[in-house]
Amino acid sequence: MRSLWWSLLVVQILFLLGFSNGESPYRWYNWNITYGDIYPLGVKQQGILINGQFPGPPIDSVTNDNLIINVFNSLDEPFLLSWNGIQQRRNSWQDGVYGTNCPIPPGQNFTYVLQVKDQIGSFFYFPSLAMHKAAGGYGGIIIRSRPLIPIPFPPPTGDYTILVGDWFKQNHTDLKAILDGGNDLPFPDGLLVNGRGSNGLTFTVDQGRTYRFRISNVGLTTAINFRIQGHKMVLVEAEGTHTLQNTYESLDIHLGQSYSVLVTMDQPGQDYYIVASTRFTSPVLTATSILHYSNSAGGVSGPPPGGPTIEIDWSLNQARSVRQNLTASGPRPNPQGSYHYGLVNTTRTIRLVNSAPVINGKKRYAVNSVSFIPSDTPLKLADYFKIPGVFNLGSIQDYPTGGGGYLQTSVMAADFRAYVEIVFENPEDTVQSWHIDGHIFFVVGMDGGQWSAASRLNYNLRDGISRCTIQVYPRSWTALYMPLDNVGMWNIRSENWARQYLGQQFYLRVYSPVNSWRDEYPIPIGALLCGRASGRKTRPL
């Protein structure tokens, strides 16, 4: 049976590849998910490993590559991987969150069939169920430009991926139990850089050369600031968009965000600190790594350079300076600025307000008063098989209701090819970070205070950055323009994983009445079926 299943899967994959792009190469991966002992902060913990590695293996690809990733779950609990920033064009079947996919049962496998269609940039993958992310299981994703597509800077000498995030010494099951009990997580115990604590990593460079650093915040609860002692950083990319090449001494990176910077090794030959520290926290956590010049005459000197700590205005002003490079090519040869997002009329405004209600005596988090609860069947499967009673369209409103919080499997209806304005409003005293699966959006504005229609007068309708994850500062708002150009069931979530787990998320159903492969791929033959979809048939080969 297993060999027959694999044969059918290979036929399906080859058919899909031929349909999607006969000339695009494909890359095959076999990943085994296991528990293993790790000591990132000097204390033995149960980590989630991929092929024995923490962090997991990197994915290095090129625009339009097809990625065939066979994931075998050797844990004693269900497992899923999701792909932060990979748009899954026409293919929310592969998104890897519970709203779209059945978890991989213990002792079984699932093969993801992804195409990084019309994308470039720096991203990461992560485990999406429960609090698995607190145990590892994440890794970096690189999508390089095709050889004939120009990039707006000379090729760097080297390319380093840096995955930074806060870390807890407790097991992920203990953290889940804390949240299930209606309590907040404790303060993190430290920061990790590529799975290691302070001074656990050394990056070797040659004097006079320029290197690319791809930095992602893979943490659970805190924004970070990144800096390199004695060196300037030139920002060149944010989540797949080439940016204006501004120079920074340090860079704020909020939960779920990814950036690329170029650093020229123009200092005397010695070692220097690479520093990550938490933002908007007390106390401030710091982790250091070493930048080692190959001709170094000595180790690091002096204390690690300090950075911003609680300053909101500093961070807001920096965020506004991150803009598109309009003349640079993206994944295609045409300039990024050839899509004039500011000249397209929006068809709908969606206002989303986060809150922290107490429901049934327990702490929850909500969007427009609705605290999301998972259904017994993935929403995408319920939609495909037309299973009643799993979710209701319109179970979350386009605007804040002002009422008390309540539990609901919240799904918002949307039309394919609509062009929407989304306003995230944050009345709380903590920074929020939001991610939208399956799409990119244009950041047109962010400011303090209450958003109103008059706020549109100050929108940036020319070179706002396009990305998939954005922050909202305390008692502030952030506004986006987003083309709904990807049919499917898409997760909109807080990147603060405790808030996401306790309900600060919902799904956007982007619907096309045309049943065509031009709009959406069919259900995979090997799709896992669970809940009320169990026992049904996917489709004939």
Automatic annotation (TrEMBL):
GO molecular function annotations of the record: copper ion binding; oxidoreductase activity
Organism name: Solanum pinnatisectum
Keyword Nuclease applies: no
Keywords: Glycoprotein, Signal
Every Plastocyanin-like domain range: 33-146, 159-296, 376-513
N-terminal signal peptide: 1-22
SUPFAM superfamilies, per database record: Cupredoxins
Family indicated by similarity: Belongs to the multicopper oxidase family.
Nuclease is among the record's keywords: no
Record's protein name: L-ascorbate oxidase homolog
InterPro entries named among the record's database cross-references: Cu-oxidase-like_N, Cu-oxidase_2nd, Cu-oxidase_C, Cu-oxidase_fam, Cupredoxin, CuRO_1_AAO-like
